[in-house]
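This part of the workshop introduces the protein records we will be handling. A record pairs a protein's sequence with a compact description of its fold. Comparing a sequence with its tokens is the quickest way to learn the format. The record below serves as our worked example for the rest of this section:
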Amino acid sequence: MLIGYMRVSSESDRQSTNLQRDALLAVGVDTRHLFEDHASGAKDDRAGLAKVLEFVHPGDVLVVWKLDRLGRSLSHLLEIVNTLKHKQVAFRSLTEGMDTTTPSGELLFHVFGALAQYERALIQERIVAGLTAARRRGRIGGRPQAITGEKLDAIIAVLNGGMSKAAVCRNFGVKRTTLIDTLTRVGWPASYKDQ
């Protein structure tokens, strides 16, 4: 059975699924088997997409007018098509001519998968290179430290003088977890942290 899925980015009158609907009906999708969403492709919670993925059965073919109507990114598209494959459901995109029921369509899908994996590896490589370059320039990632410099020196001095952590938090206006994290970061003795 052919199952159709359509999506437009908003519910405004300017955007309509008519073009997609006509294309899907022209290839034999029954009007009773059309699912649609009026939502951005970036949204995870698309009700129509969830319904179509629940509706399909082994042997069905999910048909879309264009690849970008289904997935918000290449990796998301591959995730959906892999879900379909596990359900023994084929996938077909009319505009790109992709059809996983044919050997060439299956090959194209695998090429897309390899490209997505390559893209993820490149992104990871760029992140690591960027962090390394930042460290060489003296920059350390993460949130700025809440307690530093003179304030930290004053807190350690009053803790050495016997003030409780609760009193330090009240007097210096810091949260208990922030105080404990800071003491851990500066290597404060473990025996004191547990008091």
